[in-house]
C-alpha cells in the first residue's frame, strides 16, 4: 500500500479520473482518493514511477513528501 499526495483534485470528477487512471494499471488492486487531504491510497504492487506517471498523465501533479 502506498499513499501519494496529489495537487489539483477538487471534485468528485477529479477523484474519479485519478481512480480510473490508477486502477487501469495492472499492478493496482484499488485506489482510494481523499479529496479533503489530497491523498490517494494505492493498494497493490505498482511501482511508484508508474503511479506517478498515471496521475500526471491524467492531468494532476504528484507532490513529493517533504
TrEMBL record:
Residues 1-63 form the HMA domain. PROSITE patterns: HMA_1, HMA_2. Coiled coil: none annotated. It comes from the Bacteria. InterPro entries: Cu-bd, Heavy-metal-associated_CS, HMA_dom, HMA_dom_sf. Signal peptide: none annotated. CDD domains: HMA. Keywords: Metal-binding. GO terms for biological process: copper ion transport. GO terms for molecular function: copper ion binding. It holds the Pfam family HMA. This is Heavy-metal-associated domain-containing protein. It comes from Azospirillum doebereinerae.
